[in-house]
TrEMBL record:
It comes from Chryseobacterium arachidis. This is Probable DNA metabolism protein. The lineage of its organism: Bacteria, Pseudomonadati, Bacteroidota, Flavobacteriia, Flavobacteriales. Residues 84-250 form the DUF4130 domain.
């Protein structure tokens, strides 16, 4: 058994997969350094250094075999943070190389491909809900701030949506669980990585005066338009699960 340790990045994972074929390893496992716990003392450790050219060669091969959409599906598996993500992506890549003329991601008879399909649906659903349930709050400096805590690492998947939709204002979206986010300053839309977790109490103290008034108005509007006689909590929770209520101004 050879254990390939990589840095946890998507390019690092693709580099590791490239080196499996480069060094003709047979019995392998690919693990990020962050999650590595050596259980097999006889396993050979191979340290992977991320190399963009190797990752690019894997991507080019994948684009030829399964297309850009297929690559996007594998990226969703990576962002799912599933414990088996390396094994699933590696399995799909091996199958795409073995069957270059087939769309292997449609072969649901294969257990790995079926699990990839289920993961992609879950990640896509979470991405959609993040675009629907994100609530921005205006800060004193004019920046609109939103905090999220998604089940999956969907921040890279919602970046384009918000950049296209809110081009006329500065905003930032912060992932509470993973301690990073997106910042748009009217010119660039980049990821930011704080050294320490943001102190949300300090941020709440920096709300713009207008924001507090808007929140009160919105809560009143939500209350006034609610028809008690037609209340269907079960249906409401089906469309807006409770775990998203913490984002919604009208639920406070």
């Amino acid at each position: 058994m050879t254990t390939l340790l990589y840095d946890g990045s998507f390019d690092g994972l693709l580099t590791a997969i490239f080196e499996v074929f480069e060094y003709r390893y047979k019995d392998v496992e690919i693990v990020s350094r962050e999650r590595f716990h050596q259980e097999n003392i006889f396993a050979e450790i191979h340290e992977v250094i991320t190399q963009n050219d190797k990752a690019e060669r894997v991507l080019n091969k994948l684009e030829h075999n399964i297309g850009k959409q297929g690559i996007h599906e594998l990226l969703k598996v990576y962002l799912s943070e599933d414990p088996e993500l390396e094994q699933l992506i590696f399995s799909a890549i091996k199958q795409s190389i073995k069957h270059p003329d087939e769309n292997i991601l449609k072969n649901y008879a294969d257990d790995d491909i079926l699990k990839i399909s289920k993961i992609c649906k879950s990640v896509s659903r979470e991405r959609h809900r993040m675009t629907a349930f994100v609530r921005f709050e205006k800060m004193q400096d004019g920046v609109f701030f939103a905090k999220i805590d998604p089940d999956f690492n969907v921040v890279p998947l919602i970046r384009k949506h918000f950049k296209d939709r809110y081009q006329d204002q500065k905003w930032m979206i912060y992932d509470l669980r993973r301690n990073y986010g997106i910042l748009y300053d009217l010119e660039t839309c980049d990821f930011f990585y704080p050294d320490e977790k943001l102190d949300l109490n300090k941020y709440q103290q920096k709300f713009h005066d207008e924001e507090k008034n808007y929140q009160v108005l919105w809560q009143r509007y939500f209350t006034k338009t609610n028809i008690v006689e037609r209340k269907n909590l079960k249906l409401h929770i089906q469309h807006v699960p409770r775990r998203y209520w913490k984002y919604l101004t009208e639920k406070r």
